[in-house]
TrEMBL record:
Keywords: Lyase. The keyword Cell inner membrane does not apply. Belongs to the pterin-4-alpha-carbinolamine dehydratase family. This is Putative pterin-4-alpha-carbinolamine dehydratase. It is an enzyme of class 4 (lyase). HAMAP family: Pterin_4_alpha (MF_00434). CDD domains: PCD_DCoH_subfamily_b (cd00914). InterPro entries: PCD_sf, Pterin_deHydtase. It holds the Pfam family Pterin_4a. One of its GO terms (molecular function) is 4-alpha-hydroxytetrahydrobiopterin dehydratase activity.
Length: 95
């Protein structure tokens, strides 16, 4: 199991990324907006493939053209480098 990252390391990583820390859920989150459902779902498909490859999966929701993603490492009870890494890969999909 991956180790939780220290608060300072987490803050330093998040300062460079469009993700925020959710204190209550002990996770990082970001919302993505698209033109319509079709584009949102295409994005989710790509994220799902990334997640399977990484063996690390998002907690997420979709409402029409918005996909909200929350990442944490369940086993560790918070954020690990695996979450930061997956967030970066997800961001790279839309760059
Ligand atoms: C058995 C399997 O490896 C685990 O359940 C994995 C799967 N995907 C996971 N995804 C996330 N986000 N956190 C986990 O702790 C996790 N654990």
């Amino acid at each position: 199991m991956a180790d939780l990252i220290a608060e300072a390391e987490r803050n330093a990583a998040l300062a460079e990324m469009p993700w925020d820390y959710d204190e209550e859920r002990k996770s990082i989150f970001r919302s993505f907006g698209f033109r319509d459902f079709s584009e949102a779902f295409a994005f989710m498909t790509r994220v799902a493939l990334l997640a399977e490859k990484a063996g690390h999966h998002p907690d997420w929701s979709n409402s029409y053209n918005v996909v909200a993603i929350s990442l944490s490492t369940h086993d560790a009870g918070g954020v690990t480098r695996n979450d930061i890494e997956l967030a970066r890969r997800i961001d790279a999909l839309i760059e």
